[in-house]
Write a structure and sequence with these properties.
CATH class: Alpha Beta
Protein name: 2Fe-2S iron-sulfur cluster-binding protein
Keywords: 2Fe-2S, Iron, Iron-sulfur, Metal-binding
Pfam family, one: Fer2
Shape: globular
Family: Belongs to the adrenodoxin/putidaredoxin family.
CATH topology: Ubiquitin-like (UB roll)
Largest sheet: 5 strands, mixed
Bound molecules: FE2/S2 (inorganic) cluster
Cofactor: [2Fe-2S] cluster
Helix content: 10-25%
Length: 105
């Protein structure tokens, strides 16, 4: 699954990762900066926030209540915010593009 991460300064990084991983795991395993993931993917920290490219937003699976609640704690939350640990990579997400926030907390 190919993924594109754009950081707060506009630098673009393209990585590819295995299906079944979370977007957060894919980023951290590939050394993409800007995702802290303090809780290790348990939907309990909100430091894996990403801003999803508008073209992709509606193509992602809906948020769980847990994700929606936790996003309430995220710094600089935006309309297109999601928690990267809650997005499971699947073939239909090939090319997914997200921006990482300038800081997570
Ligand atoms: Fe903690 Fe995603 S890694 S909420």
């Amino acid at each position: 699954i190919n993924l594109v991460f754009i950081d707060a300064s506009g630098q673009r990084r393209e990585i590819s990762s295995q299906e079944g991983r979370s977007l957060m795991e894919a980023a951290t395993l590939s050394g993409v900066p800007g995702i802290d993931a303090d809780c290790g993917g348990a939907c309990a920290c909100a430091t894996c926030q990403v801003y999803v490219d508008p073209d992709w937003l509606s193509r992602l699976p809906a948020m769980s209540d847990g994700e929606a609640n936790m996003l309430g704690f995220a710094a600089n939350r935006q309309e297109n915010s999601r928690l990267a640990c809650q997005i499971r990579l699947a073939p239909e997400l090939d090319g997914l593009t997200v921006t990482t926030p300038e800081f997570q907390f």
